[in-house]
């Protein structure tokens, strides 16, 4: 649904990553898949990761007054949750109780995160290299959604979109145009979203980009919700997302999922149409957002250029992140 999903959908096994994109937040490119979805389901050049399934996951059946609960893995956090709905309710209550100060439209969200390294876009089916040193990345997003900035591989601050007065300060060259634009919803327009879980779910399911082809699917809605949780979004909206996630078809609870920093938590998990599982990981006591994990949940055959066929291997980690820090700052490049 956003610019990163666009890259995912346009990617082919032989595609090369543009230098400007490769320099940007590499964590947000880890979960791209080579095989585009069928045209009738694919929003043209607009769908993303989510930067967010589970096969076998949580199954709840009620018969003759008996509820059977099946989960993947056992919780080592000390928190026993019956399902995604309980996780959503607990996380929502924690969000509602958290202090919050709304940022100004010209302020920036600074984020620092850790991601698994060794990703090669041209051999995406091999996933990340868990044996390689993890990479720390930094990014700034302006609250009004009109500009972003990141540290390039050369250590320079680069600005994407409207540069404001950053160009005057020498930010590493003229601002680039953000590929495909940003997500439909961001800190600049979150106030337009309903905070009733059912109403929010309906709104996101009916959200469309101007150039979108096909219907908005559950994987797109899951992605939008993950993006909201990744932001320092308003408490009532976060609570609505937490309560709406279990209502989304295909979302399951997954216990004891580690983020890229090794912190373990409870996760909302979803398997998309390509058979890739994305997990939104929450700290098991405070329900703070920790990061995401993308992996192959079920095998699928992919034909590469030249006719060679490969089969994706379940368990292959395609993307793995951990958010280490997040602050509201006054300008890009500022960290505190």
From TrEMBL:
Membrane-crossing ranges are 49-69
Q: Identify the domain of life.
A: Bacteria
**Key word Transmembrane helix present in the record?**
yes
Keyword terms: Membrane, Transmembrane, Transmembrane helix
Query: What InterPro entries is this protein classified in?
Result: CU044_5270-like
Protein name according to UniProt = CU044_5270 family protein
Q: Which organism is it from?
A: Actinomadura yumaensis
């Amino acid at each position: 649904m956003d610019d990163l999903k666009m890259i995912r959908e346009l990617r082919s096994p032989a595609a090369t990553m543009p230098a400007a994109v490769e320099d940007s937040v590499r964590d947000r490119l880890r979960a791209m898949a080579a095989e585009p979805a069928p045209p009738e389901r694919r929003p043209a050049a607009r769908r993303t990761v989510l930067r967010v399934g589970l096969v076998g996951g949580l199954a709840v059946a009620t018969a003759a007054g008996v509820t059977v609960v099946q989960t993947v893995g056992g919780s080592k956090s000390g928190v026993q949750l019956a399902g995604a709905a309980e996780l959503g309710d607990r996380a929502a209550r924690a969000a509602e109780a958290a202090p919050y100060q709304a940022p100004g439209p010209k302020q920036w969200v600074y984020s620092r995160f850790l991601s698994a390294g060794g990703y090669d876009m041209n051999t995406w089916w091999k996933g990340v290299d868990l044996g390689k040193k993890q990479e720390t990345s930094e990014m700034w997003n302006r609250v009004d959604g009109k500009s972003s900035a990141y540290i390039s591989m050369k250590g320079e601050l680069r600005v994407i979109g409207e540069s404001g007065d950053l160009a005057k300060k020498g930010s590493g060259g003229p601002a680039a145009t953000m590929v495909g634009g940003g997500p439909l919803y961001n800190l600049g327009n979150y106030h337009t979203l309903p905070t009733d879980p059912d109403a929010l779910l309906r709104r996101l399911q009916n959200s469309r980009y101007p150039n979108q082809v096909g219907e908005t699917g559950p994987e797109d809605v899951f992605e939008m919700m993950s993006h909201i949780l990744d932001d320092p979004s308003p408490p009532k909206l976060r609570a609505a997302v937490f309560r709406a996630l279990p209502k989304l078809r295909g979302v399951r609870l997954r216990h004891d999922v580690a983020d890229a920093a090794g912190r373990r938590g409870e996760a909302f998990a979803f398997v998309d149409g390509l058979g890739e599982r994305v997990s939104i990981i929450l700290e098991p006591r405070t329900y703070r957002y920790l990061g995401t994990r993308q992996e192959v949940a079920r095998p699928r055959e992919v034909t590469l250029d030249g006719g060679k066929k490969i089969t994706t291997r379940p368990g292959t980690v395609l993307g793995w992140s951990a958010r280490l820090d997040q602050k509201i700052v006054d300008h890009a490049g500022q960290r505190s």
